[in-house]
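Lab notebook, design round three. We kept the backbone fixed and only want residue identities now. Task for the bench partner: fill in a sequence for the structure below.
Input structure tokens:
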């Protein structure tokens, strides 16, 4: 077995990989959207599948939640399996009121409280983690082609799902506004927990990366959705991701 956390042999994983956090979502995507899907790993029940979409080999690799778990699976995809196009398909929490629950959102860039970029650059450079422009522009064109609205912009990738950033009197605020409000002022659309690792690790390996999300909850409006509505926007996101993944 060439990698400690993945049972795949070399050649089992396609160059193009979709990355959901949830293993059961990986299974759903593989069974619903791919032809001839075969599971190549179930170590820790973090499933990976390879099949074809419109005749092109595509893999779906679950990653777990948060930068540390995500980084393990993605670093191995890059270093061991030499994957070239990585598209995260996840959920995010809306922060800007311009973003609605169920929207599909694409991370053009990522701000973060994670120490990952500091670890990589030794603190000397505040690296700007950005989407691969080719994948980003193709995803926007594909979304338009299928009449699926998408929003593109900056997101914040956080280490703690439960943090203090909404507190106006907290150490991160200025006593008048919470850090969340300040981030929205500066154009941050939503919060999530993995994409900084995707953009930094892929950049280091010379691979293409893109993070696409559905907005599952909203920190300000607390909008609710039904499971059916969530499933529809999830399927829209997967269609955009797969159509983008298979293009050359
Ligand atoms: N916070 C962080 N990550 C998330 C959220 C959130 O509210 N929703 C989906 N991913």
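Proposed sequence:
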């Amino acid at each position: 077995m060439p990698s400690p956390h993945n049972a795949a042999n070399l050649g089992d994983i396609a160059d193009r990989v979709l990355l959901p956090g949830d293993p059961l979502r990986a299974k759903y995507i593989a069974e619903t959207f791919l032809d001839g899907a075969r599971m190549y790993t179930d170590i820790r029940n973090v499933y990976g599948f390879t099949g074809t979409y419109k005749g092109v080999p595509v893999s779906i690799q679950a990653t777990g939640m948060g930068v540390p778990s995500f980084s393990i699976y993605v670093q191995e995809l890059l270093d061991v399996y030499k994957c070239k196009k990585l598209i995260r398909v996840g959920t995010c929490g809306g922060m800007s009121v311009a973003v609605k629950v169920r929207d599909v959102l694409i991370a053009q860039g990522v701000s973060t409280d994670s120490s990952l970029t500091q670890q990589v650059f030794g603190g000397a450079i505040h690296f700007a983690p950005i989407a691969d422009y080719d994948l980003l522009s193709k995803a926007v064109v594909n979304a338009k082609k299928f009449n699926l609205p998408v929003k593109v912009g900056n997101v914040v990738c956080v280490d703690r799902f439960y943090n203090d950033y909404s507190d106006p009197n907290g150490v991160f605020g200025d006593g008048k506004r919470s850090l969340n409000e300040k981030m929205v002022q500066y154009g941050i659309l939503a919060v999530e927990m993995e994409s900084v690792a995707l953009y930094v690790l892929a950049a280091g390996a010379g691979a293409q990366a893109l993070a696409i999300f559905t907005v599952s909850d909203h920190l300000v409006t607390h909008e609710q959705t039904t499971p059916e509505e969530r499933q529809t926007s999830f399927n829209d996101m997967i269609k955009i991701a797969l159509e983008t993944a298979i293009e050359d």
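Keep this in mind before ordering anything: Residues 21 and 65 are 6 Å apart (CA to CA).
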